Amino acid sequence: MNIALAQINVHVGNFDANLAKMLDYTARAKAQGADIVVFPELATVGYPPRDFLEFDDFVEKAEAVIQELAKAADGIAIVVGSITRNPVVEGKDLYNSAYFLANGRVQNIQHKTLLPTYDIFDEYRYFEPAHEWGVVRYMDKTIALVVCEDSWNVGNENPLYKINPMDMMMEHKPDLIINVSASPFAYDHAANRIEVMQTNCKLYNLPMYYVNHVGAQTEVLFDGGSLVLHADGTVIDEMPYFKESMRIYNTEEVKSKDNVSGEEPKDKMTLIHDGIVTGIKNYFGKLGFKRAILGLSGGIDSALVAVLAARALGPENVRCILLPSQYSSDHSVNDARELAQNLGCQYDIIPIEGIYDAYMDVLKPHFWGKDEGLAEENLQARARGMLLMAFSNKFGNILLNTSNKSEMAVGYGTLYGDMCGGLSVIGDVYKTECFELARYINKDGEVIPDNIITKPPSAELKPDQFDSDSLPPYDQLDAVLYQYIECTKSPQDIIGMGFDEALVKRTLRLVNINEFKRYQTAPVLRVSSKSFGMGRRMPIVAKYLN
């Protein structure tokens, strides 16, 4: 049997485009001799569809896609993820299902049992878990159809779920496993994903054909990396990251370990770089936008965003606005100009001192007797935000936010100022990782001027200002933030690791009191296991650690 895995980039709710793409891949797979073509979880509707699932019309359109795909299942079988109505009154209205289409009809449907409700996942909000488990018989094979999470409850001393649907399916003695998944990207997730699938293969002594989404849906990135594994857990092949692809595998060759390609390399900075570029490209493309603007300050954060945007959209579609104030250094303006020239991006220089002075003329009578401070500093950031949004409105471009994860964590940013934007590009990249990413970008030649990478970070909102005046050294700050945000460690836990007590308490307090800012920021492209946004839900009004 020849099985084609098609890791495709679909679009939430774009039923016509999703159907057309799957019909095209089906025809190509059939022409190349495939007996089955496999598409990812919820490929008909896109993942995650969220509250669109509450609209009956949305469900009807998904059902229509299945019927059209079934017509194409002639001389080739199609495995595809979609939604199914629950026929009984009890329970949720829908199932998350894997469909097996053959001979022009729906032959089998296997519903998903384990519904993840953590991090970015909220499937139990919409779906009823499966209560029955079976297999598919096709040609000379018995196939266990599995939807994503149903393969993740193995090899764990503290399993998340009380039942394991894989055990139920094994009672039917399948010959192989086909897993349709929507497994989001995080730079450290791919290795874990492979390990879990290897555990399944070894435990049940079965080969696995695993297909994943690729591309981005708003802030959620999918890396692809679809897998074929031998029954002993050997990775026969891993498909490319962040690239649509289809490969055909012969089950006998997999069984005999012919043509073992093994795993793709997994360099952290390569994955983050490629993930963000994919995220920008898909955010713009799926929204129907072509051009971006950003404020280019001469600092490392905006430099990274400019490079990543130029690589995603083309430099001709990225406009950099330099907005120097009376506190901006000459080298910052020169560095920003040099970067824009290196990239081939259009750039404009608009000094903001006059705008700032006009603001101050209006406010001075009302601020009389008050020392200058944060309000005056933030006026500069808000003047920049106002100008950038004016460009965005006038030319129909999306403004890219340039805040990094460290700044977003501790609130080192100005609401309606430098926190403006339609997409947060590096909001899940810590400052120390920003330096790593910049060096990665420059590994084959200087793209980002070296001075941008080596000079001390500064907001340049007052004379002789540096980030270190307001924040701990970034290597210490980021280490504490990682333990609190990604690892959910308590203050006592973090202090017990050897971190300074005052540093820990101050940092965690800053994170918690600035939750209100993060509620108002742009969607953050998710590259880590715990990003700000959908995957980290904290109250604003809370006493804990404040």
Automatic annotation (TrEMBL):
GO cellular component terms, semicolon-separated: cytoplasm
Keyword NADP: no
InterPro entries: C-N_Hydrolase (IPR003010), C-N_Hydrolase_sf (IPR036526), Gln-dep_NAD_synthase (IPR014445), NAD/GMP_synthase (IPR022310), NAD_synthase (IPR003694), Rossmann-like_a/b/a_fold (IPR014729)
Keywords assigned by UniProt, alphabetized: ATP-binding, Ligase, NAD, Nucleotide-binding
Any one GO molecular-function label of the UniProt entry: NAD+ synthase (glutamine-hydrolyzing) activity
Domain CN hydrolase stretches: 1-256
Reaction equation(s) it catalyzes: deamido-NAD(+) + L-glutamine + ATP + H2O = L-glutamate + AMP + diphosphate + NAD(+) + H(+)
Binding positions for ATP per the UniProt entry: G295, L296, S297, G298, G299, I300, D301, S302, T402
Ligand binding (deamido-NAD(+)): N378, E407, K517
SUPFAM superfamilies in UniProt: Adenine nucleotide alpha hydrolases-like (SSF52402), Carbon-nitrogen hydrolase (SSF56317)
Pathway where this protein functions: Cofactor biosynthesis; NAD(+) biosynthesis; NAD(+) from deamido-NAD(+) (L-Gln route): step 1/1
EC number: 6.3.5.1
Stored Pfam families: CN_hydrolase, NAD_synthase
Residues that coordinate or bind L-glutamine: Y118, S183
Source species, domain of life: Bacteria
Similarity annotation: Belongs to the NAD synthetase family.
HAMAP family linked to this entry: NadE_glutamine_dep
Protein name: Glutamine-dependent NAD(+) synthetase
Organism of provenance: Neolewinella aurantiaca
Organism placement in taxonomy: Bacteria, Pseudomonadati, Bacteroidota, Saprospiria, Saprospirales
Gene: nadE
